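Protein in question passed on here:
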Amino acid sequence: MSSPVAARAAFATLFGAIGASFPYLPVYYRSVGLSLGEIGLLSSLAAAVGLIGAPLWGTLADRYPTSRVLLPAAATLAAVSALALALARQPVAIAAAVIATSVALAGVTPMLDTRALEAARGDDEHYGRLRVWGSIGFVVVVWVTGFLIERSGIASLFTVYVPLLVITAVVALLLRGTGRAVAPLPRLSGIGLVLRHPTLRSFLLAAFGVWSASMAINAFLSIHLLAIGAPGELVGSAWALGAMVEVPIMWAYPTLATRFGARRLLIAGASAFALRALALPLLAHPVLAALTMLFHGAGFGLLLVGGVTYVSRHAPAGTAATAQGILTAVVFSLAMIVGPGLGGLAAGAWGLPVMFGIAAVVGLVAAVLMALAVGGPDGRD
């Protein structure tokens, strides 16, 4: 199996596993008696661990750029931890399993992104045509899992989640890094190099605001849809709809970047997130609320591919995986701490519609910051 084919397969199984878990785990936590505030804090705790884990995994991958062990090891740890979560019954055991899973997944994503960028043979914008298979896997699995949950109960998500992580670990064995560190970087100095880089620092700050607002909504979207009368199938369909929009956007990203410029695509993605946040609290019908995921899918596709390629282009020498690890930490860890954590407190105090409105304001401000951060003169950064 060639590296591009293996990368496609790994993206499909990894994000299929995420499709089986992320939209439904808040509902599972609710079913075992956790409150909205507790769900938000649990998500934030897991994200805090990932905030540390992702850059460390990335640094380790940069020190051993041809290793075939690190990526499968992280995926295997994720599978074992997800199984532990399925078996956990006490709150402390649940929290421990969630933390362990978060540590593992924090390593899988940046290392797989780095391998995919290498498989694209230097054409960063074609990374999207590899990553799109993750969205395809997400679409298929989130839909299947929704139907399975409707018939067999919320705990059945683990019968899909755990096996897909195992398959990811197996496929990852076929991916070997081809990169070489340009200069030996002592210990954790690569993290400091990335964080001190002025272009990357501005971009990461803007990305933090954009993704925090979106994560606040995502953490409680499934609960909100169920509260306004959506059946389980519609919840799954809403997430699948968002991912379906990602597919053509990621596939067409090289063409879109050539036509409009990568800078404008990042700004458009941030704006799409803000539009989803504005529309959601105004729509009481379950189907209309679910359709707001069209905006989310557009924003996710543009920001994910655009963010990975932007960071890849500006990463200091010898920090390819470290830079991706920091991006992962900001987007999927730090934003998950602030977004769902504060979102849960706001939802508990004022209700979900008000929290969605606050997220919309934050998202709009962050979109402006994104425009300022990536405002390169050539319009392509």
